[in-house]
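Example S7 (structure tokens).
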């Protein structure tokens, strides 16, 4: 594997993704929490950073521990740190060095740059530049404005590059990373979904033995794939719980429960609708509703978990971005989240935790799911918030409002599927607004509810644009909603992007 040491760059996760696209396993660790070098580690990549090596308190590592042990590639800040700590000089850049540049390769023998075209396009993004390299360094590539665009340390496999090979604008960046990871570090390209499934199942068998595991499923990709892995490892010793909180989509509870049963999972469907509606009665404020829903879920799950004798583990569908986020570099004084006092937690939270997907990115989770034969209807499902329709009914929640919104949502989502637009958008749904408006139906005046449709395109949910759905489609859906859903006489379409709006309305 490759170890990626994170100094806080926005691109660190991208480096990891590129390495994995080469079918080589890698892990990101913050520079101030580096694990011991195991024999599995074949090379180290030092990431970029928003910090400047010229600052006294900028992040640093003890390079001597790693140099000559394994090959090292410093990227941007990582390269500057190598140059400066080993006796070179780094200064603020004279020119604007942000954007595309042409690489002039000075050393065609360099195995790092092997196979790159003579004027390869690379992506620069830096405010400092290396102005003097130590004596034992050799420049292997330059650009018009950056003399030290790439270097190698003589007699060792340590390299630095000022540009970002992980960004697609570096058109041959993948070749460079291949040269480093496969050519120089000698990693085998055998980390595939199939191999992940096989080794994970074996690992889970050893770790869990005859122990029982309890897991809450949501119908979403992550929990389903995680449960399938654990199920393949320990069979019916995995106890799955799927809670109907009364805030799911129309028919979703029954459908998802059936798919889980078809997959052979040991699943229990729990109808807790009444408990959630009671907990929510009269609550209007979004955060109060979220808290009530979260609390009710914990109570239901804790009760169910207690019914299983001797359960030892809690399975979870946590994925890699959640893990990296919680240990990301926040500056030299970064600390890892400390554990809460477990005294006041429900019993199931005192269980040992097993998270088989906590090293995977979302698209890798889907690939693993595909490798295990999970249906596309689950793998390609839009994200759906835990509090469900509870945060899409603005104001207080009643079973009647849920029923109205479920109908509206079903017409919208089925329409998207029928018109083959479902996979074009990242997420879609409907909001029931606390507004009534005047309309006319036949000769009658109506005074009924307004619903807002929301569909967005996005990569990760952090930013999003409203989906530019065809007018003809919106017209058809709006007609169907107003004609078929009693109590709704007006449909609006949300054309706000995130930021400044959010995807959900509450
Ligand atoms: P926002 O509304 O913050 O949503 O733009 C971003 C993504 O997160 C989902 N979301 C939630 N998911 N519990 C969840 O499990 C929540 O309380 C919650 N709030 C928002 C939202 O559906 C979107 O995918």
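Recovered sequence:
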């Amino acid at each position: 594997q490759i170890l990626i040491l994170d100094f806080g760059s926005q691109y660190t996760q991208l480096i990891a993704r590129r390495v994995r696209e080469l079918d080589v396993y890698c892990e990101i660790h913050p520079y101030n929490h580096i694990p011991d070098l195991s024999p599995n580690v074949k090379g180290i990549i030092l990431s970029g950073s928003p910090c400047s090596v010229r600052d006294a308190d900028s992040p640093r590592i003890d390079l001597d521990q790693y140099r000559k042990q394994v090959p090292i590639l410093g990227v941007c800040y990582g390269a500057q740190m190598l140059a400066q700590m080993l006796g070179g000089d780094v200064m603020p850049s004279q020119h604007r060095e942000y954007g595309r540049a042409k690489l002039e390769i000075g050393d065609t023998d360099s195995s790092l740059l092997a196979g790159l075209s003579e004027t390869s396009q690379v992506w620069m993004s830096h405010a400092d530049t290396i102005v003097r390299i130590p004596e034992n360094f050799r420049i292997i590539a330059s650009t018009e404005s950056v003399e030290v665009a790439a270097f190698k340390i003589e007699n060792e496999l340590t390299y630095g590059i000022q540009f970002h090979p992980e960004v697609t604008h570096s058109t041959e960046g993948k070749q460079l990373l291949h040269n480093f990871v496969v050519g120089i570090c000698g990693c085998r390209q055998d980390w595939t979904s199939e191999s992940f499934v096989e080794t994970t199942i074996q690992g889970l068998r050893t770790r869990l033995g005859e122990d029982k595991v309890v897991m809450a499923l949501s119908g979403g990709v992550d929990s389903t794939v995680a449960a399938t892995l654990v199920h393949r490892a320990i069979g019916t010793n995995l106890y799955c719980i799927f809670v109907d909180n009364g805030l799911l989509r129309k028919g979703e509870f029954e459908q998802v429960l059936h798919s889980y049963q078809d997959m052979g999972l040991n699943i229990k469907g729990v109808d807790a609708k009444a408990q959630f509606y009671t907990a929510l009665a009269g609550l209007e404020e979004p955060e109060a509703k979220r808290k009530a829903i979260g609390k009710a879920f914990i109570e239901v799950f804790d009760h169910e978990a207690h019914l299983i004798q001797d359960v030892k583990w809690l399975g979870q569908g946590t994925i890699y971005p959640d893990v990296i986020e919680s240990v990301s570099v926040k500056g030299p004084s970064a600390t890892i989240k400390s554990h809460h006092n477990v005294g006041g937690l429900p019993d199931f939270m005192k269980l040992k935790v097993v998270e088989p997907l906590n090293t995977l990115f979302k698209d890798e989770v889907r690939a693993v799911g595909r490798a295990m034969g999970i249906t596309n209807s689950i793998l390609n499902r839009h994200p759906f918030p835990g509090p469900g329709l509870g945060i899409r009914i603005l104001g207080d929640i009643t079973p009647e409002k849920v029923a109205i919104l479920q109908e509206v949502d079903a017409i919208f989502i089925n329409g998207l599927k029928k018109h083959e637009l479902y996979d074009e958008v990242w997420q879609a749904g409907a909001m029931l607004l606390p507004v009534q408006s005047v309309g006319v139906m036949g000769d009658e005046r109506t005074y009924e509810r307004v619903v807002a449709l929301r569909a967005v395109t996005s990569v990760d949910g952090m930013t999003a644009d409203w989906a530019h759905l065809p007018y003809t489609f919106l017209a058809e859906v709006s007609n169907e909603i107003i004609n078929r859903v009693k109590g709704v006489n007006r449909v609006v379409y949300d054309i706000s992007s995130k930021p400044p709006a959010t995807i959900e309305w509450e």
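Notes on this example. Residues 2-184 form a domain with the Rossmann fold fold (CATH 3.40.50.880).
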